[in-house]
Each structure stands twice: as structure tokens, then as C-alpha cells.
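thread from #wetlab-drylab

HS: before we spend reagent money on co-crystallization trials with zinc ion, can we at least see a predicted complex? here's what I'd submit
DV: go for it
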Amino acid sequence: MSIAGLCPKCGQRVLHVDVESVVGLVGGESKARCLSYSCIHCHAVLGVEIDPRAKPRPRRRPTTSAPG
Ligand SMILES: [Zn+2]
């Protein structure tokens, strides 16, 4: 008998998760892109992690004008 991954909230098997792109805040400032995994049945968040594909964001340049 195998142990199935169950949602801690609704008790359904977690065979799929909703993946959302969220922003991690440190001291109120956005620092990193994260991924949120939530139950597709009840939308309880099962976990959040730093997006491993996210590239470090370049610092904002002091450029002023944008065309258009
Ligand atoms: Zn659930």
C-alpha cells in the first residue's frame, strides 16, 4: 500500500498542483520571483519556493526617457 500525497486541507490526492508565479518580499521589497503550488481542489497553498528559472534582476538604470 503506497502512501499518496494528500492535501492537508481537503484530503484529496495531490496529483496536480496549480503553479503560480509570485513575488517574494524581504522587508516589504520584492526580492525574488517565487513559485506557489496550490491544491487544484481547494486552492490551499501547499508550498512556495524560489523560482529556479528566475534570472537575477538587473538593477534599475537611471535612464529617464522612453520612446513613445
Ligand atoms: Zn485541497
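DV: The first strand starts at residue 17 and ends at 26.
HS: ok that's useful, forwarding to the group
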